[in-house]
Write a structure and sequence with these properties.
By secondary structure, the protein is of the alpha/beta class. The protein has eleven helices and five strands; from the N terminus they run H-E-H-E-H-E-H-E-H-E-H-H-H-H-H-H. It has a domain of about 220 residues: Rossmann fold, CATH 3.40.50. It has a five-stranded parallel sheet, with helices on both faces. The structure holds zinc ion (ZN). Zinc ion (ZN) binds next to helix 3.
């Protein structure tokens, strides 16, 4: 007994002393100043998961995107540390921009607690500044969410870090221009029923059934399809007062489809991360923010959101001026 407990003590102290030397996954929230100072900046990757709080209809949790991002972040941290990198995970930042409810011009919706794109950019530029000043060189942001402005804000924060601090900071999901569906697992009829969906349809519901079945409404099998054929249809459907908050057909979702999507998305993320670490220049890699801003059909949604954001900022700034609350 003495021997075995002494042995476990020895193993424990070995683990403790190796805790910042080897390729491990750390959580910044748990590290003290000594441990942070010891991190070899050239061999350390900071991973920041994000997750917008956004309505996903009556069957999915509001942080659906965050659960996906967190899963991808954890997998990425594990895979990169297996390759000899030390990885440091940030806590999930539950702030993102542009709820899908904006597609129909419904700027307020239960479950959506979004921040303006310039607020999002300021937060990630501030984090880039803190990390850059502390000489960290590699930052991966995993904050997948479809809003063009959300992605543009995160892309710009990454560019700021690269320009000002000479390191690498990338919004990985911003390069994922594929919507990562698994149409091969659906029949023709099922694909037709799901139609064109960008939010909380069969694919995203499947992804959540795969990751967090405990958080998917048990009656999802009775979900009425909300079927559109393109973005113009979605804008009309989502403008209806009784729009349930999703597009497509969540009732068709399965864990198998979710598993297939999770694998495809994760592989794409890992590939991008490895390219950055190999020194590849991603500046010519297509980005969703660039593509989306060029699409004529998304212009109406983008300008509607922009008007609402300046209305909100105007109201806040007027209050600050009126009450002398400048910081
Ligand atoms: Zn989502």
């Amino acid at each position: 007994m003495v021997n075995s407990s002494m042995r476990s003590l020895a193993i424990l102290s070995l683990i403790a002393s190796a805790s910042v030397a080897g390729a491990e996954v750390f959580h910044i929230a748990e590290l003290n100043t000594r441990q942070i100072l010891e991190l070899d900046r050239d061999r350390t990757i900071v991973i920041i998961p994000g997750g917008i709080l956004e309505e996903h209809g009556p069957y999915l949790p509001s942080m659906s995107d965050g659960y996906v991002n967190l899963d991808e972040s954890n997998r990425l941290a594990g895979d990169l540390s297996d390759r000899g990198w030390t990885t440091v995970m940030f806590p999930l930042i539950p702030l993102g921009s542009g709820g899908a409810n904006e597609v129909g011009g419904q700027q307020v919706f239960p479950g959506t607690y979004a921040i303006r794109p310039d607020t999002l950019r300021a937060i990630f530029m501030d984090l880039a500044t803190e990390l850059g000043e502390q000489r960290f060189r590699y930052i991966f942001v995993l904050h997948g969410h479809g809003s063009p402005a959300h992605n543009l804000a995160l892309d710009q924060a990454g560019q700021y870090f690269r320009d000002e601090y000479g390191g690498e900071m990338h919004n990985l999901a911003g390069y994922l221009t594929d919507s990562f569906s698994a149409p091969e697992l659906l029949t023709e009829d099922e694909l037709a029923e799901n139609g064109f969906s960008v939010h909380a349809g069969v694919m995203e519901t499947s992804h959540l059934i795969h990751l967090r079945p405990d958080l998917v409404g048990p009656d999802v099998g009775q979900a009425e399809p909300v079927t559109g054929q393109g973005i113009a249809d979605l804008m009309e459907l989502a403008a209806e007062a009784d729009w349930p908050g999703y597009f497509g057909s969540p009732r068709l979702a399965t864990a198998d489809i979710g598993h297939a999507i999770a694998e495809k998305r994760y592989r794409a993320n890992l590939e991008l991360a490895l390219r950055v670490l190999d020194g590849d220049d991603l500046s010519d890699t297509p980005r969703w923010s660039v593509i989306a801003y060029q699409r004529e059909e998304t212009q109406a949604v983008i300008s509607g959101s922009r008007a609402e954001h300046s209305r909100r900022a105007g109201r806040q700034n007027a209050w600050i001026r009126r009450t002398g609350s400048e910081l």
